[in-house]
Amino acid sequence: MKQLDWTNLAEMHKTELLESVMPFWLKHSMDRECGGYLHHLDRDGSIFCTDKMMWMQGREVYMFARLYNEVEKRPEWLEAAKLGADFLRKHGRDENGDFYFLLNRQGEPLRVAYNIYSDFFAVMAMLEYAKASKESWALDLAVETFWKIMARRGNPKGRYNKILPRPDLPSDHTFPMILLNVAGMMQESVKDDRFEELLRDCLNRIMTKHVDETHKAVFEFVWADGSRPDEPAGRFINPGHAIESMWFVMEAAHKRGMTDLVDKAAEAMLWTAERGWDDEFGGFYYFLDFKDRPIEALEWNIKLWWPHTEALIGFMLAHEITGRMEFANWYRRVHEYTFKIFPDPEFGEWIAYCDRRGVPTHFLKGNKWKCCFHVPRTLLNCWQICERMKGK
Amino acid sequence: MKQLDWTNLAEMHKTELLESVMPFWLKHSMDRECGGYLHHLDRDGSIFCTDKMMWMQGREVYMFARLYNEVEKRPEWLEAAKLGADFLRKHGRDENGDFYFLLNRQGEPLRVAYNIYSDFFAVMAMLEYAKASKESWALDLAVETFWKIMARRGNPKGRYNKILPRPDLPSDHTFPMILLNVAGMMQESVKDDRFEELLRDCLNRIMTKHVDETHKAVFEFVWADGSRPDEPAGRFINPGHAIESMWFVMEAAHKRGMTDLVDKAAEAMLWTAERGWDDEFGGFYYFLDFKDRPIEALEWNIKLWWPHTEALIGFMLAHEITGRMEFANWYRRVHEYTFKIFPDPEFGEWIAYCDRRGVPTHFLKGNKWKCCFHVPRTLLNCWQICERMKGK
User: Fold this and answer.
1) What is the distance between the alpha carbons of residues A259 and A253, in angstroms, rounded to a whole number?
2) Among positive and negative, which fits the CA dihedral A193, A194, A198, A201?
3) Consecutive H or E run containing A386
4) In terms of CA atoms, which chain B residue is nearest residue A42?
5) Do A101 and B364 lie within an 8 Å CB cutoff?
6) Which of A70, A9, A121, A24 minimizes the C-alpha distance to A348?
7) Chain A contact set for B114 (CB, 8 A)
8) How far apart (Å, rounded) are the C-alpha atoms in residues A69 and A125?
9) Which of B114, B166, B353 has its CB closest to that of A162?
10) Torsion angles phi and psi, residue B13, rounded to 5
11) Which of B111, B355, B363 sits opposite A294 (nearest CB)?
C-alpha cells in the first residue's frame, strides 16, 4: 500500500485555504457598514439575503482568529475576527444573556434564543478571539456563556420546547459531541477541573451509548435506558456526523492516552465509512436508516460538502494516530471524490450541495447552514497533520 | 386541438381510486387496536413508525367520509371514517381544545398544539364525518374548532412563536388559502353569514396580495403593505401550492359568478405552470426563486406527488370552467408525466418522492406529510369533473 504524499498534500491544502477559501470570505462577507458578516453568498460572492445567523457569525470569528493564532499574525485576519466578535458582543444576546438565533443586517433580533448551538459557537468564537486579541472581555464572555449552556442543558429550548415529556425521550448525539469539543477548548484557556470531568462524561456517553459495537453502527438517538426502539429516530444514522464525532473522540482520547477508546473510535469510523459510502455514484449519503426503512428527510441521498470535509480530517487524523493503512486508503478515496466535486476554482471557495450523482443542485457558497467553517477547518487541520507527518 | 376523452378518463380515475388507492389505506392504515390510523407506511403497506400526526388523521377521516357521502354508502368507508373521528375526538385535543401536532400510537401527546393546520384538517374531517354519520357532536366539534382557529389567527403558534415581531412581517399564502377552502365547507353545513365574509376576504387577500399581475407570478410571502423585499421569502414561489390555491379560487369565484376573478386565477395558473415546469426532465419543480437566486430548501428541484396531483385537478377544473384548450393541453402533459412516474400497480397507491430526473428516492406510501389525501382527492375530483363533462 502506498503512503500518502505528505509534501504534496500539505501544499494542496495550504494553497486551497490561503488562496481560494479565506480570500473569498475576506472579500465578500465582511459587513463594514453594520458589523459582523454577510453569509448568504451566491457562487460569485454576491449577497442573496442579509439576515445574520448567530451560529455563522460565531464560526467565522473562530476561523479568522484561529488562522491568526496558528498560521500567521496577519492584521487583516485579526481585524476580520474583530468585526464579528464586536457584532456578537454588541447585538448577539437577549436580556438573559442567551444568544439569539437570527438577527437582521442591522443587528436587530429576528428569532429568539431557542437554539443552544448558537451559544456553543459563540463560546468557540470568543475563546479563539480572546487568544488572538488578548481582550479579557472575550474570555469572560466565553466562560459566562459556557456555564449558561450548562445551566440550560436539561431543557435547552426552554419554553420553546414542543416535545412533550415522555419517559423514553432519546439522548441526542449532537450535544455531547459539541460539548466534548468545546470543553476541550475551554480547558486550554481556563483552569477549572470541571472541564475534564465534563469531557470524560461526554467521551463515555458517546462511546457507550451512541457507538453500538453489537450492531457496528453509530446511532444519533439513544434512549435514556440505552435502548433504541425500532422507530425512525432509533434507526437514524448520519455518517458525516458520526465520522466527525469519532475524530473528536480520537483526538481527545489520544491526548489522554486512552488507547482502548482510540481503537474503538477507529473501528466505529470504519463501520460508518463502509455503511455510508455510495458504491454506485461515490460519496457519502447524508442520512441512513439502519434497517433501510424509509427515511423521513427528503434529502437523505444528496452529497453535501461537510460530511466529506469531516471525513477528510477524520481519516487523515485516524491514520496519523493509529498508523493503520485502511485510513490512508479511505482518505485517498474521499479526497479524490471531494476535490473533484466541491471546489470552485473559478470564483473561489466550495459549492455545497449536489444530488446523488454528484451534479450540483445549488451553487451558493454560504447560506443558513454553510459559512466560513467546515471547508477552512478541514483545510487547516489537514495541512497541520501533513506538516506533522512530513517530519516523521 | 383534441378534446380530452372524458369517458376513458372517468374510468381511469375511478379505477385507480377504488381499486388501488382506497383499498391500500383500508387494508394497511386502520389501527383497530388503538383507534385512528397508522400512516407511516412503506411501499408494501408495512408500518415503519407508529406515531400519529393529527393532520394526517383528519385528512383520512375526511377522505373516507367524503367517499361515503359522494360515491357510495359503503359501510366499510363509514366505519373507517368513524375509527379516525373517534380517535380525534377522544385523544386529539389539549386542555384548551386545540389539536395536538403528534400523538403516539396509544393516543398520548408527543408534540404540543403549536400548529393551527392540525385544527383546520380536524374541521374538514368533522364536517365531512358529520354529514356521513349524522352525529351532532362531530358538527359541534367542527364549529367550535373553526372559531377557535379564528380566535388564534393573529398568533397561531402562541407561545411557541420564535419569530420576533417586526413591522415588515410577511403575510403567508397558506392561511387564506386553507381558510378559503374550509370556510366554503363550513358554509355548506352551517348557516352563518360570517363564512361568506371570511371567504370573500380570503379571495381578496390571495388575488390582490399574492397574485402579482405585474410580475406574472404567485408569491407565497407578501408584506403587510403589499411589498415584497428582495430577500428569499419575498422571492419564494411554490408552483404546486400556487396552482392548488388557484383552483380553490376558481371554484369559489365561479360559484359566485365572479368572472373577472375566474379569469385572473386562470391566468395566474398558466404563468405558474410555465414557470414551474422543468423543460429538461419534465414535471414541476418543488420550489423556485423568482430571480433564480439560491433557494434555501435542499429539495427545491425534486418531483413530488402532490404538486402534480393538484395540477391535475387545477387544469381539469380550469378547462371545465373556462373552456380554454390551454388547460386541456396542460392537463394532458401533466397526466402523462404523473401516471408514468407515481402510481404503484404492484402494491397499490402512489409513491411520493422522485429526484429531478423522475427516479424514485423513496418508496414509502405514507409518512409525516403523505397520507390518504392528495392522491384520492385528485382521483375523486377529476372523476367527478369527467362525469360532468361526459354529459355536455
Assistant:
1) 7
2) positive
3) helix A374-390
4) B294
5) no
6) A24
7) 162
8) 13
9) B114
10) -65, -40
11) B363
Q: Which three cell numbers stand for residue B60?
A: 383520512
What lies within 8 Å, CB to CB, of A351 at 6+ separation is: A43, A305, A341, A342, A344, A360, A362, A363, A364, A365
Residue indicated by cell numbers 434497517? A291
Taking the C-alpha atoms of residue B8 and residue B10, their distance in angstroms, rounded to an integer, is 5
Determine contact, residues B98/B119, Cβ cutoff 8 Å: yes
CB-based contact, A73 to chain B, within 8 Å: no
A136-152 vs A75-91: helix crossing angle, rounded to 10: 50
Biggest distance spanned by C-alpha atoms of chain A: 58
Q: Let me know how long chain B is.
A: 392
Residues in chain A: 392
pLDDT at B167 over 60: no
Record: contact B49-A356, CB cut-off 8 A: no
pLDDT, residue A159, reads 76
Structure confidence by residue, pLDDT tens digits, A66-99: 999 999 999 999 999 999 999 999 999 999 999 9
Interface pTM, i.e. ipTM: 0.91
The answer to whether residue B152 neighbours chain A at the CB level (below 8 Å) is no
The residue of chain A nearest to residue B50, with distances taken between CA atoms, is A231
Cβ–Cβ under 8 Å, residues A227 and A170: no
Place of cell 464572555: A141
What is d(CA B206, CA B244) in angstroms, rounded to the nearest whole number?
12
A295/B362 CB distance under 8 A: yes
Look at B295 and A362 and tell me if their CB atoms are within 8 Å: yes
Distance CA(B47)–CA(B343), nearest Å, equals 19
- B298–chain A Cβ distance below 8 A for any pair: yes
Per-residue confidence band for B1, with pLDDT thresholds at 50, 70 and 90 = low
Regions of chain A with pLDDT less than 50: none
Contact predicate B178/B120, CB 8 Å: yes
On chain A, the residues whose CB falls within 8 A of the CB of B363 are 294
Residue A160 contacts B, CB cutoff 8 Å: yes
Q: Cβ of A51: how many Cβ atoms within 10 Å?
A: 18
Q: How far apart are CA B27 and CA B80, in angstroms?
A: 10
> Hey, is the C-beta of A163 within 8 angstroms of any chain B C-beta?
yes
Specify the pLDDT at position B169: 64
3-state DSSP assignment of residue A299: coil
Grid cell at residue B233: 421569502
- pLDDT tens-digit series, residues B66-86: 999 999 999 999 999 999 999
Q: Scanning every residue of chain B, which has its alpha carbon at the shortest distance from the alpha carbon of A364?
A: B294
For the CA atoms of B381, B385, B386, B388, what is the dihedral angle to 10 degrees? 140
